[in-house]
Amino acid sequence: MKKVLLTAGLALVVLSVSFPSAVRRVYGQVDESATTTGADFVAPTVFQAAGPSGASIQGIVTQYQTALGGKNNGNDGSHTDGFRQINWDGGSTTNLTTTLSPNPFAGFQATRGALFTTPDGTGFVQAPPSGLAADNVFNNPSYTTIFTPFSASRLFSAIGSNITDVTFFVPGAGNVPTTTKGFAAVFADVDQPDGSGPGEKRGNRKASTLVEYFGVNGELLFSSLVPAAPGDGSLSFFGVIFPDARIARVRITSGNVAPGPDDVGKIDVVMMDDFIYAEPKAQ
Known about the structure:
Strand order of the largest sheet: 2-4-16-11-18-5
Strand content: 25-35%
Structural class: mainly beta
Radius of gyration: 17 Å
Number of strands: 18
Low-confidence stretches: 1-36, 199-205
């Protein structure tokens, strides 16, 4: 079978803090760092943005939610449309506690249909920037100031790894695996659009922050680098929507090293915030 190369437009960046609304929606394009797919490939719609603050990306986040039906289904049982959103706030935007969870992390599997695993990490953390900086988490005081949440007040990260896998289940049905047609995430402090640090290599390029979408048979459906914005405290958004529910697993490579080191030079440490995904439906 003849193969083709496709990907989302690479690393859309807000070029100046004077233009925080400089965001756009893009479609799959040919590029040497792209996903290799078969002739039956169907390009998803891609939504991406990056900028110095939450306001920089809010417009494209709202567009994405609207494209998924505009209804946040929260912890309800199964729905036929709408989306699920996890913002890590523990039920309160003033929550400043640090929560450590095991690997796998099944806290949202029954209620919102998402299970989180990290292939070589030890668990996960939900915490404000000060909690990420604490001795018992990443032990790096600089994390208090370089990371800014999109939705107050906590961020999310794997511990001991920069890789997070998300698999999908029917909400309210326990352990029934399923698929979704779209998944997106907000990222904190993506500095390197071309992934020039010591991270995972894809083709002739090393990915700083990468999102990969897989089907039910483990086939790679689509992948793209996440857009970056210069300076500490920046926020990025990346998501896709397919015509139908074909995503069984999402792999997120957040930054080019596991959290812990200083975020300087070619080291790009990245945290995650809101996850937004189309209603996982029973097949």
